[in-house]
Amino acid sequence: xxxxxxxxxxxxxxxxxxxxxxxxxxxxxxxxxxxxxxxxxxxxxxxxxxxxxxxxxxxxxxxxxxxxxxxxxxxxxxxxxxxxxxxxxxxxxxxxxxxxxxxxxxxxxxxxxxxxxxxxxxxxxxxxxxxxxxxxxxxxxxxxxxxxxxxxxxxxxxxxxxxxxxxxxxxxxxxxxxxxxxxxxxxxxxxxxxxxxxxxxxxxxxxxxxxxxxxxxxxxxxxxxxxxxxxxxxxxxxxxxxxxxxxxxxxxxxxxxxxxxxxxxxxxxxxxxxxxxxxxxxxxxxxxxxxxxxxxxxxxxxxxxxxxxxxxxxxxxxxxxxxxxxxxxxxxx
Length: 333
Hints:
By secondary structure, this protein is mainly α. About 70% of the residues lie in helices and about 0% in strands.
């Protein structure tokens, strides 16, 4: 049994299903009040508005509503309308319908009807040419794309994890607007002699446009999220503390080195340790397998070589030279 009308009832059922599903999905999350949930509600509300427009606010089309050919004379259309309304034949129609029937007396106006729709033909009082109807209809079409772009911008707001998709979403919306405008302006309109089975370009493009508005925010909102950006402040703070602890040790290193040289035992132990490190390092540097593996990783250890073959050796020497210069020690040649 109908409560209001078939279209309104269908929208209420669809809205109830969508809202209940959304609430159940949000309740499963550990935290309810999050940015993602807020954006989910935004997408759902926008989707419901688009669904309401598609189901309830379908563009009027007197030919499809009455199931009559596009070539039906205006007087015949008037008679059929009065019969459907159970009104006397001499009853005047509302002014918008009177304006529409008057304009439909021209065949060229019927091609514009297919291209721009009934609302534009009957609402634009001053329009008489193709360009005027095009200018009149363009802002209405553009407003829907502006709303879609605004929703896409909010869905990809900072912190949503979809920031990288904003450019693609807005570019897709602009491209769709340009394509639709080009299609409306240039598509040839063909009307057969019997006026049946005419492809209503306006109504079909209107449906495609709103389905695009419905799908795009849902798609962007459910695309893979970017990994959260790590705050560099804690890392920089820890590095600063480590450098503050290391700097005094490097400054004292030259004094420790001088003290070691004054004690024969320590001087001999130090020379022995450095000699052992030199021998082990020489073993690693002369091993062919180690050299090839280092070159494949871009960390070559070959002396006086350019490119990957000597990259690690160059970096190590540069770092050691800067470290020795910072504490005032002599740089070995």
